[in-house]
Sequence to fold (514 residues):
Amino acid sequence: LAPGEPVDLDNCAREPIHVPGSIQPRGVFLAVTEPDLVVRHASQNVLELLGHPVDDVLGHPLERVLGEDAAGAISHHVRTWGNLRARNPLLVTVGGAETDVVLHRILSGDSTLLVVELETASGPRPFSFPNTYQAVRGAVEKINRAQDLAELYEITAREVRTLTGFDRVMIYRFDEEYNGEVVAEAKRPDLNPFLGLHYPASDIPPQARALYEKNWVRLISDVGYTPSRIVPGLDESTGLPLDLTHSILRSVSPIHLEYLGNMGVAASMSLSLLRDGRLWGLIACHHYSGPHVPPFGVRAAAEFLGSSLSLRLVARVEEDELEARIRATRTLAALLAASRDQDRALASALVTGVSVLDLVPAQGAVVSSDGVVDSVGRVPADPTALLAWVAEQDAEVVVRDALAEQEPALAAAVPEVAGLLALRLPEGQSVVWLRHEAVRNVDWGGDPHNKAIATQEGDDVRLSPRKSFALWRETVRGRSEAWTEPQVRSAEELRARLLEVLLERSRLQVRAAE
Ligand code: BLA
Fold:
């Protein structure tokens, strides 16, 4: 974006959010040279928070801004430790107030600048270090005991809420295209649930996701804040604005603030969930009644819970995949045993008791074999058109998840079907799994709490969760849940074995006739 160009819905994926040139004013931002600790950049709110006009700070040693003790402690700290980010925060007293100092270095031409961010530990600190440690240890133990993915998400949401005190904590999981779904939620009981809702990928644009892979926590403690500018803010050697990727005070995208405002959110925090270094989801936290500032130590503890969830998840997904494979093998064996029973039509054998729906989940399945058509689950009243269509296909295994778009003629004949997985067998025989449209109707009616949403209803405002959900619903309309690779593989395996079974059955029939 050109400087001064407004951010809007069309260009917001190009907004360079890591270089906003300003911060959220709950703390102070300073960038100093080393080892002299002379201030080169400062946020304008040094006046309000520390009592020095920004011009009295620039070009002066840190000592003048923070006092001898605090500056001495920082100087000692940076000379002692290499990995500063792993050692945050440093607790110092500035102007009589307990203050968290959070340090990291950024590049400045061939050299580096030390970024010093200060957050006053406002109000009573609900979590001393030992308390936080106890809480986190207890939470990790619970996470490790979770029996399945759903419970794992659930426990993490609840524990993060207990730790941070947000009104709502959601586990937000991306699909392959970075559309998101709220898969777990812990909330104040009077709030309406977001659980199960989906949002389009554009709600969290690519550059934001890339930033969140590097910096795993961001807090917007007051959605209504006025940004405080960093002066001068442009790096002396490169002329470029300072990179705030790792700043804890980075001012956030105005378009996102508008979104949060429309959602009725007063404060927001999100934590990155990573798998092999890639973002697979977020823990998204909302506060509604007003600003909310969990101290840095609590945010770090919540981040740690997020990484525990991520680690556990990788193990859990692998366990689940293994279990699914074992289950599929057993189901396949049961189906084949049933299909060898010569006294029963093959079509009936595959849909009674252990059925093809146990092998591949779907809303219904139709089997046509040897002139017999049988089904299980929800299937069209008259599957003739469907079976005729499958018999005409060239491919042995046919996979469709957007029937209306991919096969309009067939879709017109079976309007309730959005996706199918079909095995074509010799002589017009087939096994066909059927899925409905994936979109569930979610009742947004009433919405007693988030009044801001209701006032946007008449407007063409895209930046509200309800409009955003509606957009997602538009983009996925007419699609079924995707057929996964393991599911298609299971179906292919069934087909290979059924070919043998059909051969055997016809041989026995011939012999019986002789
Ligand atoms: C960032 N968008 C975000 C973030 C979330 C969401 C969680 C991370 C920042 C944070 O912690 O608040 C989206 N939040 C959601 C969703 C839910 C939620 C889906 O609670 C559902 C319950 N956003 C838009 C559109 C654009 C956009 C249309 O909706 C742009 C075209 C932009 N979102 C946008 C940007 C950021 C963002 C630029 C980055 C904010 C920043 O870190 O500076």
Q: What stands out?
A: Residues 9, 12, 15, 17, 170, 180, 182, 194, 199, 202-205, 208, 218, 220, 252-253, 255-256, 259, 268-270, 282, 284, 462-463, 465, 468 surround biliverdine IX alpha (CB under 6 Å). The longest helix spans residues 296-339.
